[in-house]
TrEMBL record, chains A, B:
Keywords, in A-Z order: FAD, Flavoprotein, Oxidoreductase
Lineage: Bacteria, Bacillati, Bacillota, Bacilli, Bacillales
UniProt-listed PANTHER family: GLYCOLATE OXIDASE SUBUNIT GLCD
Name this polypeptide is given: Glycolate oxidase subunit GlcD
Gene Ontology MF annotations: glycolate dehydrogenase activity
Main EC class the enzyme belongs to: oxidoreductase
Top-rank taxon, per record: Bacteria
EC number: 1.1.99.14
InterPro entries: FAD-bd_oxidored_4_C (IPR004113), FAD-bd_PCMH (IPR016166), FAD-bd_PCMH-like_sf (IPR036318), FAD-bd_PCMH_sub2 (IPR016169), FAD-linked_Oxase-like_C (IPR016164), FAD-linked_OxidoTrans_Type4 (IPR051914), GlcD (IPR004490), Oxid_FAD_bind_N (IPR006094)
Cofactor dependence: FAD
Natural source organism: Robertmurraya mangrovi
Domain FAD-binding PCMH-type: 37-216
Matches recorded under Pfam families: FAD-oxidase_C, FAD_binding_4
Length: 470, 470
C-alpha cells in the first residue's frame, strides 16, 4: 500500500479523478492478456502530459515505488502485470495523433493512441504503417513500441522497431530526453531509439513517438495453398524466398488450428488438409500479378494439392480475418490457452513444426501450431486448464523443450511477444549468462533503483507459469 | 609506451609477426581519413580470431590500456585516431566472408572484410546488400557497423543498421556475447544488435556479423535534372516523395561542387547551372519506367531546365562515379578539406542549403554542398588550409553555426559520419545534457575502465578541430 503522503503527492500531480486506489479499480489492472498471472497494483495513476509523467516518476524514484506503464494490456508475456505492486501508469488520456507529416512521411503520436485508430488516420491520406499485430484493434502504439510488436506483414516490411524514428522518454531520474528525429540518417550518439523499443518499460517511460510511414501499396492479392504434408508447405516457404520473391504475408496454419478456426469463422476453410499457407503480395499491379503466378507455380511444384487466389477483396479479407482470429478461436476450446512464439530461421520451419509435434506427443498434449512462416515466427498453442496441475506441469515442460529446440535451430525464445515475466526464466537459453549480465548492467545504469517495470525481462527466480501469482 | 610485461603478453597471444611497435609501424596508424587529427598508438596488434581478441581485451582491461578497433580507417570523424594512445586493434586477418545463406538471405562475415568484396560475392548470387558508403571500395564491414554507415541508397533502403541481424561482440571484461540471429523477429531482451551498431567501438569489439540481404532489383535507371534555382531542386525532392515515389537515390550537387567534379571526372556534366539532382530508381522494369516518367514530369513542373535519362548503363555508371568522387575532387582544391554531414528532415533541405550559403558568406568561406537530398543528409564541404589559422577559426565558427542551424530545423549534427572526436563537442546540441548523461551511464556500465575507444563520442573538453592533436 502507498503511504498517505505519497498518495497525496500523486493526487497533487494528476488530480483526484486520475488517481484510483479502490479495490475494484485496482483489480481491473491486476492482470493483462497473459493467462495465469495476476497481481494487485497499489494504485492506478493516469497522467495527462509528459510533465505529469516526469513528476510521477520522480515521486516513484524517491520512494522506490514500481511503475508499470500500460496501454491496453494486450501483451502475452505478463509484461503489464504489476507483479511487484506499485503503480500502474495508465495512458488513457495521452491518446492523440499529434501530427501526420506528408512531406517527411511521418506520424507523431502519444503512447496511448489505439494502433488501428492511428492506422485509419494515416491510410486516409494514402500512407501506410506496416506493423500489424493481431491485437491492433485494441492495442496501443506505446504498448507496440515497448514490446516491439510484429504481425503478419513482418516478412516484407519488418516490425515496429523498423518504423520508430524518434522517441520522447522520461527516464527513472525524471529527465525527459528525446531520441532520433524525422531523419532517415542520424548517428549522433548511441541508438537509444532502438534501445527503448522492445525494452518492455524497464528502461524508461515513452511519452511520444514519431513513426515512419511509407506510400500505400497500390494493390494486394491473397491466395491459399493447401497441403497434405507439413514439410511440403515449409519447403514452399523456403522456395518462394529462394526464388527472390518477398511476399507481404506468408502464414502457416496446421490442421488442428484450421479445424478450430473454421468452426469459429465458418468461411469454408478446408479442414481435411494437413496444412495451409495464406500468402499475400502487395505492390504495383504488374508485380503483384507476376509474383502471384510465380508463387502459385512454386507451391504446386512443391506438392500443394490446391492453390486458389481469392476472387474478391471480401474473400481475401475473410481469409485474413480468419487467420487473425486463430488465437481467439483456440481460446474457446479450453479454460486456459498457452500461446508461445518460438522463432527459428526460415529454413528451419519444417524441423521446428515436426519438433513441436513430437514434443506434444511426448507430453500427451494438444498443441496447435500456426504463425508467420515467412519469418520463422511460429505460435505453438496449447488449449489447457490451469486448474489441472498435472497437465500444467506437462505444458511447462513441453514449452521448455520447445524453447530449447528453437535455440538449437538457431532461433529465439520469443519472436514478437516479449519476455515479460513469462519468459524471463528462459532468457538465458538465448543470451547466455554473459549476455544477460551485460543487459542487466545497462538496466542498472539507467534505472538504479529498479522502479521501471521491475521483475520483467530478468528473472528474479526460476518461477514459471505453473505457479499462479496471488 | 607499453611496459615490457604487457608487450610480452600481447606477443604471446598474437605472435611476434602480429605485434608492431616500431615508430614507422605506429605512424601508419596514427591517423585516419579525418583531416587534422593525429596521435600515436603505443602498438598495433592484429588478432586472428575472436579468442585472441578476447585475450587482448582482457589484458587491456587489467592494465587500463585503450583499444582502438580499426578496419581501413576511412571514417571522417577521427573515430579511429588513437587520441589516448593504447593499441590499435587491426582486423587485417579477420577479413573473410564466412557464409552466404541463400535460403535465409543472409551473409555472415568477419569485421575486416572489405565492403565491396563482400558486395561482389553476394551479387554473384543475385543478392543485394544495399548500404553503399562512398568509401566502400576500401572500407570494411566492421567499420561500417561501428559507424552505422549510410550512402547513396539510404532513402529507399536505409542504412547499415537496417541490415545487421546478428553480432558477435567481445565486451570490455573479455566476455564474448552473441546478439540477434538469422531472425526477422527476435525480442529476447534489449536490442543490443542496434545498440552496438553505430557505437563507434566504444562499447565492445565486433568479431562477427550476420547481415540481411534482399533480392537484387531487376533493373535500374538513372537521370539528371538541372536547375537554375536551388529551391526548385529542393522542392522537386519533396514533391517526388509527396507523390508517393521513393527513388533509390536522390542526390544533390550545387554549382561549386559540379564545377569541381566535372574538372575531375570530365564526363560532360553541366557547370553553368545552379544545382543538379541525380535520381535513380530500381526495381521491376514496369515500375522503374513508370516512376522515371512521373519524376521527370514532377521535376519539369518544378522548373527543372532539363531532365535527361542516362541512355546507357555506362552513362549511368559515369554519373554515379562522378557523384561518388565529389569528396576526392573537392579534396584536390586545397591542402585541407573539411567535410560535414549535418542532416535535416527532407522538407527542410532548401532552408538548410540557403542557411549554409549565408553562413559561408558571413565567414568569407568557400563552402560547396552536395549530398543525399532524399534523406536530408547534406555534405557542406570547405576546401581550406589547416596552416591558415585565421581561416581555420572561421571554418570552425561556420560549421558550429551550420550544426546549430541543422538542429533548429529538426535535424542532427551527423547523419552518417559519426561523432568520433570531431563532433563530440557538438553532441550536446542534439542530445542535451540529459541525453548525454544517459548514454554515458550505458557506456560506463559496459566499459567501467573506459578502455573501449576512449575519447570518442563523449567530449573530454571543448577542444575542436582548430587545435591539432600531437
Amino acid at each position: 500500500m502507498l503511504n498517505a503522503n505519497v498518495k497525496h503527492s500523486f493526487i497533487k500531480v494528476v488530480g483526484e479523478e486520475n488517481f484510483e486506489d479502490s479495490k475494484a479499480g485496482r483489480l481491473v489492472y491486476s492482470y493483462d492478456a497473459t493467462p495465469n498471472f495476476q497481481s494487485m497494483p497499489d494504485a492506478v495513476v493516469s497522467p495527462r502530459n509528459k510533465q505529469e509523467v516526469a513528476k510521477i516518476v520522480k515521486i516513484c524514484n524517491e520512494n522506490s515505488i514500481p511503475i508499470v506503464p500500460r496501454g491496453s494490456g494486450t501483451n502475452l508475456c505478463a509484461g503489464t502485470c504489476p507483479t511487484e505492486g506499485g503503480i500502474v501508469l495508465l495512458f488513457k488520456h495521452m491518446n492523440k495523433v499529434i501530427e501526420i507529416d506528408e512531406e517527411n512521411l511521418t506520424v507523431t503520436v502519444q503512447p496511448g493512441v489505439i494502433t488501428l485508430d492511428m492506422i485509419n488516420q494515416v491510410e486516409a491520406k494514402g500512407l501506410f504503417y506496416p506493423p500489424d499485430p493481431s491485437s491492433m484493434k485494441i492495442s496501443t502504439i506505446g504498448g507496440n513500441i515497448n514490446e516491439n510488436s510484429g504481425g503478419l506483414r513482418g516478412l516484407k516490411y519488418g516490425v515496429t522497431r523498423d518504423y520508430v524514428m524518434a522517441l520522447e522518454v522520461v527516464l527513472a531520474n525524471g529527465d525527459i530526453i528525446r531520441t532520433g528525429g524525422k531523419l532517415a540518417k542520424d548517428v549522433a550518439g548511441y541508438d537509444f531509439t532502438r534501445l527503448f523499443v522492445g525494452s518492455e518499460g524497464t528502461l524508461g517511460i515513452i511519452t511520444e513517438a514519431t513513426l515512419k510511414l511509407i506510400p500505400m501499396p497500390e494493390t494486394k492479392k491473397t491466395m491459399l495453398a493447401l497441403y497434405q504434408d507439413i514439410e511440403a508447405a515449409a519447403k514452399s516457404v523456403s522456395k518462394i524466398i529462394a526464388n527472390k520473391i518477398i511476399p507481404t504475408t506468408l502464414e502457416f496454419l496446421d490442421q488442428p488450428t484450421l479445424v478450430v478456426v473454421e468452426a469459429h469463422a465458418q468461411i469454408g476453410l478446408p479442414t481435411d488438409v494437413k496444412a495451409v499457407l495464406l500468402i499475400e503480395q502487395d505492390g504495383p499491379p504488374e508485380v503483384v500479378e507476376r509474383d502471384m503466378l510465380k508463387m502459385e507455380e512454386i507451391c504446386k511444384k512443391e506438392q500443394a494439392i490446391s492453390v486458389k487466389v481469392a476472387a474478391s477483396d471480401e474473400e481475401a479479407e475473410a481469409l485474413r480475418t480468419a487467420r487473425r482470429s486463430a488465437l481467439s478461436a483456440l481460446a474457446r476450446l479450453k479454460p486456459t490457452t498457452i500461446l508461445e512464439d518460438a522463432t527459428v530461421p526460415r529454413s528451419e520451419i519444417a524441423k521446428m513444426v515436426n519438433g513441436i509435434n513430437e514434443i506434444a506427443k511426448k507430453y500427451d498434449l494438444n498443441i496447435c501450431t500456426f504463425g508467420h512462416a515467412g519469418d520463422g515466427n511460429l505460435h505453438p498453442t496449447c488449449p489447457t486448464d490451469a486448474r489441472d496441475h498435472d497437465e500444467m506441469e506437462r505444458v511447462e515442460k513441453a514449452f521448455e523443450e520447445i524453447f530449447v529446440k528453437a535455440i538449437e535451430l538457431g532461433g529465439t525464445i520469443t519472436g514478437e511477444h516479449g519476455v515479460g515475466v513469462m519468459k524471463a526464466p528462459y532468457l538465458e537459453l538465448k543470451l547466455g549468462k554473459e549476455g544477460i549480465a551485460a543487459m542487466q548492467a545497462v538496466k542498472n545504469a539507467l534505472d538504479p533503483n529498479n522502479i521501471m517495470n521491475p521483475g520483467k525481462v530478468f528473472a528474479k527466480d526460476s518461477r514459471k507459469r505453473v505457479v499462479i501469482t496471488k
